[in-house]
Specification:
Bound molecules: alpha-D-glucopyranose
Oligomer: single chain
Strand content: 5-15%
Structural class: alpha/beta
Radius of gyration: 23 Å
Strand order of the largest sheet: 11-10-9-5-4-3-13-12
Number of strands: 20
Number of helices: 15
């Protein structure tokens, strides 16, 4: 049994006595074969986009005190952990993915003491806390980058970033483009005759580190320890497929292949795993810390390499997230993701803060083809007409499919309320650098980041205090119908559905590590057994005749009208297998 404490500042050093010891349960262990499994196996992790979760101080921006205030709701939902999007000091050009100081909290979100208190409160409720680490790049306001700009070409200070000489012209070194649009190069404003250019895979305010510099590697080791010592349970690693580039930087290669998915990144993760594992039992019962990578890749060998037994625990199974709503596509993506996962199993998500909301995507026209995981625009940020009733019906079915899968499941805040993408934000309100850098050709990601509705009434729908500033992005009026207080009292709400699914998952799926397809199934039906659960999802509009194996008892349907022998159109049915 582990004991973990959320520290109050200053963080207790390892080995020192702690003030209050809180016993954290191992949520997945109650399920089939769960004995001894680490907490993340089978767990449900709730993604908190801090800026939009809840605003306690009334400045119109969500904050850590707001997350604390919402913890009881998350405990009621039944989640095992939260993942906090970055809340470090940052100029907020990419809402925290541009970090100026990796060891503090941005005042807009609170203080280090607020974070310590959040960790303690979460742990007291049996909820782990996973933070976001951004190792591919920092902010151009980070002291290292400022020092680099102030230093000479060829200096040690510049060796931490990817600087190249200019040829004296105004042309960037090559035609590489940034993920957010526009050139991937910016010239330093250093006043010299031939100023150098620096590489940025994202915005110009996000210079990429050079991970061949030992300085950079050692610096991040210390950052990890800083947070682990405060009781943080793990990290989600931003752009986990990108930090290590081919060396020397292949600037003559127009393909940009040398920028992504380089084998050398595994050395970094081995080093991190050793640090995370060093917490196991280090002070009389701590747990190893957990790592999950955000790696957009369609190469199973690469995905397997970064989740080898001595590297990251998991990486997101994005193959599933981008699939259109067709049983055969979903099945193929589930199979591919299971095959590409490491020994700790896959981590599934159907949405996050970078893609259009699930209910919107599922309410759009289906296209029966494989989408390129590297092409978010066609895969997960399509525009086009949306049928909201259909989108919501399918979102319910998709939630039940997701929560039946073996492995770790990530839920994005607001999906439990059935929120839709806000596609019609006023241009002037948009803040995503994608919108700016593509000259408005791409809407970007603001529409999935609109502040949450907590109450059907009130000027900010309970996101902030009634007399507080307006939310940082305007909430559409129809968000009132999705408010948590309303859903809370409605047994037919998608929130109530999520609560039931999560509770049943704990008992029936637990930390099971594989699934068995049940064949044959009618076209459009996806049926499998996992642990003590049978799940059948129908992705077609018409009801399908399908019977579960003998002895399976119907326990849940995502719509009315399910009975043994029928899976209604666009729905999922769960059956419990008798022990
Ligand atoms: C990741 C994040 C995204 C961010 C980008 C640059 O993809 O999820 O929100 O903009 O990295 O850090």
């Amino acid at each position: 049994m582990e004991t973990v404490t959320g520290g109050a500042p200053p963080a207790p050093r390892r080995g020192e006595p702690r003030e209050a010891e809180v016993r954290l349960p191992s949520p997945a262990r109650s399920g089939p074969d769960g004995a001894g499994a680490p907490w993340w196996r089978g767990a449900v992790v709730y993604q908190v986009y801090v800026r939009s979760f809840r605003d306690a101080d009334g400045d119109g921006i969500g904050d850590l005190a707001g997350v604390r205030a919402g913890l009881d709701d998350l405990a009621r939902l039944g989640v095992d952990a939260i993942w906090l999007n970055p809340c470090y000091p940052s100029p907020q050009r990419d809402h925290g993915y541009d970090i100026a100081d990796y060891r503090d909290v941005d005042p807009v979100y609170g203080t280090l003491a607020d974070l310590d208190a959040l960790i303690a409160d979460a742990h007291a409720r049996g909820i782990r806390v996973v933070m976001d680490i951004v190792p591919n790049h920092c902010s151009d306001r980070h002291p290292w980058f400022r020092a680099a700009v102030a230093a000479d070409p060829g200096s040690d200070a510049r060796s931490r970033f990817l600087f190249v000489d200019s040829d004296g012209s105004d042309e960037p070194p090559n035609a590489w483009t940034s993920v957010f649009g526009g050139s991937a190069w910016t010239r330093v404003p250093d006043g010299s005759a031939d100023p150098q250019w620096y590489f940025h895979a994202f915005d110009s305010s996000q210079p990429d580190f050079d991970w061949s510099a030992e300085d950079v590697r050692a610096g991040f080791d210390d950052i990890l320890r800083f947070w682990f010592d405060r009781g943080v349970d793990g990290f989600r690693i931003d752009v986990a497929h990108g930090l290590v580039k081919r060396t020397p930087l292949p600037i003559d290669d127009p393909s940009q292949d040398g920028l992504w998915r380089q084998g050398g990144v595994v050395d970094v993760y081995r080093r991190w795993r050793r640090i995370g594992d060093s917490y196991r039992g280090s002070d009389g019962g701590d747990e190893p810390r957990y790592f999950i990578g955000e790696a957009w890749a369609d190469d199973p060998a690469f995905l397997r390499s970064i989740t080898a037994p001595d590297a990251l625990h998991q990486s997101f199974a994005f193959a599933l997230l981008i699939q259109p709503w067709f049983a055969h596509r979903l099945r193929a993506a589930i199979d591919a993701s299971l095959a590409a996962a490491g020994p700790e199993g896959p981590a599934w998500a159907l949405s996050n803060h970078d893609v259009h909301r699930l209910a919107t995507r599922l309410g759009q026209e289906r296209i029966d083809r494989d989408f390129d995981p590297l092409d978010m625009l066609s895969g997960a940020r399509r525009t086009g007409p949306v049928d909201p009733d259909l989108g919501l019906r399918r979102a319910r079915a998709a939630a039940a499919l997701l929560l039946a899968l073996p492995g770790t499941v990530y839920l994005y805040q607001g999906d439990e309320l059935g929120l839709f993408e806000v596609l019609d934000l006023p241009d002037g309100a948009r803040q995503d650098p994608i919108w700016r850098r593509t000259g408005g050709r791409e809407l970007g990601r603001d529409g999935c980041r609109v502040p949450l509705p907590w109450t059907a009434d009130g000027p900010s729908m309970g996101f902030g205090p009634d007399d507080g500033a307006a939310p940082w992005l305007p909430q559409p009026e129809d968000y009132r119908g999705h408010a948590r207080d309303r859903a809370e009292n409605d047994p037919a709400s998608i929130l109530a559905l999520h609560r039931r699914l999560i509770a049943l998952r704990r008992d029936l799926v637990g930390s099971a590590d594989g699934l068995e397809w049940i064949d044959p199934a009618p076209p459009g039906v996806l049926a499998f057994a996992v642990g003590g659960l049978v799940c059948a999802t129908n992705t077609e509009g018409a009801d399908a005749a399908w019977r579960p194996p003998a002895g399976a008892r119907l326990v849940l349907s995502t719509c009315d009208g399910a009975e043994p022998g029928v899976v209604p159109g666009d729905s999922t049915t769960w059956y419990a297998l008798d022990a």
